[in-house]
């Protein structure tokens, strides 16, 4: 039994695939099936430690990014994608997996095209309201398509498409409160706000949060994922911003929150401020936490804007446009939610109603159905 995973180079593509592998292994243990051999094919391993932990073999395939705007990089990237496709055809022919699981992203295109040429069965998962170009292409010949938002259904064949949500890793699906205050070095009697600007951080959100810190830290503790590349700049700024603050120790900065730190942060947080990446939105929903969503502007990321709008209209979150965001507006919205337990309760209720905690299980079952029928 051979299962090949492919996706672009972001946490939103990578970690749902890991969640699916977790559920595949659980079902295989339950049914006492033969343990499959897993492969991950992309232009970058993204998280080599996690691949090693789950015994997933990485297969490198070059892939070029095709931008929707003019760029001198488009032409060489076309040749890179063409070469990657030839390599993918050869490597897939040698492996010939029972199924390919596509998460989308430009890094997956050579593998998707090769799978189509070799007629290897494929399953697609789409996290966004508006599917990316790779998944739109792959969805035309995929055996099954799992989507996170109803709006995405119109882009895929109805008979093969199901609303499943987004697969969430078990280690972050459930908030952990035990020892969280000690691990994160937090005070127990001061409310905690978790701020995440995406896996790589957001300079814009970081700047607004840093400006707001002197006021926010009077009432709250802040856990802030700033992005690894932004840590040095913020460390230089903090002594100036918090020079007169008596509560500077209430600010906890992380370049990147590990799965343990993230689940513990979720266990103690009362509110989340975030970008609108779909995977993290569904994690927040699983946690049942109120949130403030600040999507990347629509002209840059139509996906994030739609994701934020669709989530906010459920009542689980409020949406703040980046163009209008200031430290005063952020403070005001945080105070409005944190100062009203009824608002918090309703937002939590709507978040839990939006969540789909069985997404990974549904995807895994669909994959095994295809693999087992293929083996027959």
Structure notes:
This protein has 15 helices and 13 strands. It has 376 residues and is an alpha/beta fold. It folds into two domains: 185 residues, Rossmann fold, CATH 3.40.50; 183 residues, Glycogen Phosphorylase B (Rossmann fold), CATH 3.40.50.2000. The chain is globular.
Mean pLDDT: 92
Q: Give the number of helices.
A: 15
CATH class category name of the largest domain? Alpha Beta
CA-based shape: globular
Which class best fits the helix and strand makeup?
alpha/beta
Domain unit count: 2
C-alpha termini separation: 12 Å
How much beta, percentage-wise?
A: 15-25%
Major sheet size, sense and barrel closure: 7 strands, parallel
Q: Topology, please?
A:
Blueprint: E1 2-6, H1 11-31, E2 37-42, H2 48-53, E3 56-60, H3 74-95, E4 99-102, H4 109-118, E5 122-126, H5 133-139, E6 144-147, E7 161-163, H6 170-173, H7 180-184, E8 192-196, H8 203-216, E9 221-225, H9 231-241, E10 251-254, H10 259-268, E11 269-274, H11 278-287, E12 291-293, H12 302-312, E13 317-319, H13 327-338, H14 341-354, H15 359-375
Parallel strand pairs: 1-2, 1-4, 2-3, 4-5, 5-6, 6-7, 8-9, 8-11, 9-10, 11-12, 12-13
Helix pairs in contact: 1-15, 3-4, 8-9, 8-13, 11-14
Please outline what is shown here.
The protein has 376 residues and is an alpha/beta fold. 46% of the residues lie in helices and 15% in strands.
């Amino acid at each position: 039994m051979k299962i090949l995973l492919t996706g672009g180079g972001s946490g939103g593509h990578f970690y749902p695939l890991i969640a699916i592998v977790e559920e595949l292994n659980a079902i295989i243990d339950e049914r006492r099936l033969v343990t499959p051999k897993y492969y991950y094919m992309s232009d970058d391993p993204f998280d080599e430690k996690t691949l090693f932990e789950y015994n997933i073999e990485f297969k490198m395939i070059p892939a070029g990014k095709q931008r929707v705007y003019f760029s001198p990089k488009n032409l060489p990237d076309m040749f890179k994608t063409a070469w990657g496709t030839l390599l993918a055809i050869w490597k897939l022919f040698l492996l010939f997996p029972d199924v390919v699981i596509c998460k989308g992203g430009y890094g997956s295109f050579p593998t998707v095209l090769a799978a189509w040429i070799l007629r290897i069965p494929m399953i697609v998962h789409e996290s966004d309201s508006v599917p990316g170009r790779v998944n739109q292409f792959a969805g035309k010949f995929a055996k099954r398509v799992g989507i996170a938002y109803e709006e995405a259904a119109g882009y895929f064949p109805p008979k093969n498409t199901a609303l499943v949500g987004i697969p969430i890793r078990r280690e972050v699906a459930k908030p952990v409160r035990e020892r969280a205050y000690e691990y994160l070095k937090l005070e127990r009697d001061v409310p905690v706000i978790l701020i995440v600007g995406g896996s790589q951080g957001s300079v814009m959100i970081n700047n607004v949060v840093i400006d707001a810190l002197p006021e926010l830290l009077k009432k709250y503790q802040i856990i802030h994922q700033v992005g690894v590349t932004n840590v040095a700049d913020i460390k230089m700024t903090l002594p100036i911003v918090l020079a007169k603050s008596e509560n500077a120790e209430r600010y906890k900065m992380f370049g990147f929150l590990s799965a343990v730190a993230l689940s513990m942060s979720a266990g103690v947080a009362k509110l989340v401020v975030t970008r609108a990446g779909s995977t993290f939105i569904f994690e927040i929903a699983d946690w049942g936490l109120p949130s403030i969503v600040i999507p990347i502007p629509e002209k840059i990321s139509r996906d994030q804007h739609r994701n934020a709008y669709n989530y906010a209209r459920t009542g689980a979150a409020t949406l703040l446009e980046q163009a209008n965001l200031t430290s005063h507006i952020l403070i005001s919205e945080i105070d409005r939610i944190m100062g009203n337990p009824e608002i918090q309760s309703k937002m939590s209720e709507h978040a839990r109603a939006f969540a789909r905690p069985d997404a990974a299980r549904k995807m895994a079952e669909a994959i095994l159905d295809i693999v087992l029928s293929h083996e027959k």
